[in-house]
Amino acid sequence: MKTRLFLFLAAGMAALNSCTVTSTLYPLSSRPDQCIIKNEFSGIWYFKDDSSQLYSIDTLAKNSLHEYQILCLDMDTTDTMADSVYFRARLVQLHDSLYLDTYFELGKNDKNNMDLELLTVTRHFIFRLHFISADTILFQEPDPVGVINLIDKKKIHLTYAGLGEDNFLILDKSEQLQKAIIEAEKYKWLYKNTRLLIRVK
């Protein structure tokens, strides 16, 4: 249970106003021409409203999809060593918006303390980013309840499965995901959960 909670915290989901979690089975993109590298994204970051987690971000060498590795460190622990979780991430450019697609990096994490769900299904968490300056990023999380409501009302065309109470997995492949995300841009309220990432200097 601790691992699942920390996974969500590490993915930047601590700002949720509800306990609902929405993720995707497929990546937002596997096309190298849509995945970009921004040098200013590399470094060590923390959320302005919660400095108990640090995020060390670096590019992966010789990676055709221009992926990043994110090491999430939980500094708020009673252990002598900080808890850590590794993620892979891609920056995906869709029209004028930039999205961060993160997923759990199984090979780099301790499997003994992982929930079975994390070991059997690769789940992608997608956020929108806006680089305000070299040291500040606006981190926007789609409202998970709002996403499910839009799907149920057929405002965006996606399918999902329930993984448990308030836990949903979107099943569509990358192309359909992109269409839905672009369509959802007109619902400005969908990205009401915003936080600021601040670079550690």
Notes on the structure:
It is a single chain. The model is unreliable at 1-18 (pLDDT under 50). It is built from four helices and twelve strands; from the N terminus they run H-E-E-E-E-E-E-E-H-E-E-H-E-E-H-E. Strand 6 (83-94) and strand 7 form a beta hairpin. The N and C termini lie far apart (33 Å). The protein is an alpha+beta fold and 201 residues long. The protein has helices at 2-10, 116-120, 144-152, 174-184, and strands at residues 21-24, 35-36, 43-47, 50-59, 68-74, 83-94, 97-104, 124-133, 136-141, 160-164, 167-170, 193-199. The strands form two sheets. Strands 3-4-5-6-7-8-9-12 form an eight-stranded antiparallel barrel. The protein has a three-stranded mixed sheet with strand order 1-11-10, covered by helices on one side. Helix content is 17%, strand content 40%.
Topology readout:
Blueprint: H1 2-10, E1 21-24, E2 35-36, E3 43-47, E4 50-59, E5 68-74, E6 83-94, E7 97-104, H2 116-120, E8 124-133, E9 136-141, H3 144-152, E10 160-164, E11 167-170, H4 174-184, E12 193-199
Parallel strand pairs: 1-11
Antiparallel strand pairs: 2-6, 3-4, 3-12, 4-5, 5-6, 6-7, 7-8, 8-9, 9-12, 10-11
